[in-house]
Amino acid sequence: MRLFLLLFLGVSLSLSAQDKIGIVKHNHLALQVKDIQASAKFYGDFLGLERIEVPADLKAIRAWFKIGTDQQIHLLAGRTEPVVNDRNGSHFAVFVESMEKAEAYLKARNYPYHAQVRFDGVKQIYIPDPDGYLVELNEMKK
Questions:
Q1: If you placed Cys at 28, which of 1, 4, 67, 72 could pair as Cys (CB 3.0 to 4.6 Å)?
Q2: Lowest-confidence range among 15-19, 57-61, 64-68?
Q3: Nearby residues of 98 by Cβ (< 8 Å), 6 or more positions away
Q4: Same domain for 98 and 52
């Protein structure tokens, strides 16, 4: 029994010491959308994300956008079912320069949003994209 426990412990320690998958950072988020043009207009024109060139044979069914320095959003045509969400459900979050500026931008355009203060004092704003995916805007904690 003692030998079994020593062998089990040795194998367990050996396995836990092995490297995991080795993820180093986030690359992109892919969202399936109903109308690629409407969604591209929202992410590009409304949110102001920089568009990334898509291979020519994919332009009709894809739109890619840069977020920050090295992350992306990939829009994929083909959604047929509605996205069902609420502000406590699935969403992705991005940092903005100024929450006041972001909220003023939304108000000036009568764009629907929900604002709240997180438990640690950070203000959050949730906005729906054309498909109903929720985008959380928040300011880096000072």
A1: 72
A2: 15-19
A3: 139
A4: no
Q: Do 77 and 98 lie in a common domain?
A: no
Examine the domain organization and report whether 65 and 90 are in the same domain. Answer: no
Examine residue 17 and state whether it is found in any structural domain, yes or no. no
30-58 pLDDT, tens digit each: 999 999 999 999 999 999 999 999 988 98
Give the structural domain span for 72: 25-81
Residue 20 lies in a domain: no
pTM: 0.80
Tokens of 121: 């004092």
Q: What are the distances in angstroms from CA 40 to CA 14, 32, 35?
A: 48, 12, 8
Residue 8 lies in a domain: no
Stated length of the chain = 142
